Predict the 3D structure of the following.
Amino acid sequence: MAVLKLYRDKLKHNYNHLDNVFREHGIDWGVVTKLLCGQEIFLKEILGLGVKEVHDSRVTNLKVIKSMAPDVQTVYIKPAPKQSIPDIIRYADVSFQTELDIIRLLSEEAEKQHKLHKIIIMIEMGDLREGVLGDDLVDFYSKVFELPNISVIGLGANFNCLHGVMPTQDKLIQLSLYKQIIEAKFDRQIPWVSGGTSVTIPLLFNHLMPKGINHFRIGEALFFGLNLFTNETFENMHNDVFELYTEIIELTEKPMLPSGVLAENPSGESFEVDESLYGKTSHRAILDVGLLDINPRFLIPKEEDVSVIGASSDMLIVELGDNAQNYKVGDVLRFNLRYMGALSVLNSRYIGKEVV
């Protein structure tokens, strides 16, 4: 069985580095755990770091977190489905919201459960995923402030999640100004401007972060150390907190080109023949993972002489060239993962999970 390993020391190093940076700038932050898909073995490692706030997009995962660490503040980070409202009030201390009717239902449910539910209202800043339009914001807040059992603790925005719109200093200043407008209009204090995600960190490092932005939600940078502006690893951070270990289940020297009549494969892909490869061979290995577990484009081979060719549902094909390393059946090949690849692997019940 293929195994995904999390390296505890590397995770702790990344966490401490980020925590120091945020502390220096007076910024509150929470860890986004949706990548971990509720895997208790990995959630335990996160909670063991001393995390005070955890964000997730699945209420079932927040239920697990609450059972493991009742005092940790849990944050539900997408607009709430109606059928999930009782559980959101039960397991999420805070939620991100954009729909007035849903917030009314949250208020009613919070009253039933004798709770005060905190919300962060998300604002549309150009990426066109979730968010209240800026022109509607004052009217929206006026109605939310009338609701009992609801406490507005912040406003926020997402960037780079759908259309790839990147955060800029101007956009974050605009987000901060929305807070000032609401506070002045309603004489209410809003503690957080939650404009920080992993994609926003480079602005902080480059001293371009407006002072009004005082809350971050971090997942990808913690687990992968990735600068999403440059696609390079941040200085003093690890990009291999996770590694995927796979076993070679076949290894044969084969032609580099298929033979026969070609059609689309089951994934809808068509193979284009490179005539320069006629008559050439290479050592090809089959590994014990496939499309059920991960899209091959999110895999990064750790060994330099390994290149990914493609995958079927349960098998991954890699090329080893002349096999100078003398790999054989039963040997293990390691891969780093991109974020979306790790998400698939963590959600696969066919992949083992270990902490190193």
Notes: The longest helix spans residues 169-186. The chain has two domains: 8-233, 242-355. The radius of gyration is 24 Å. The chain has a mean pLDDT of 94.
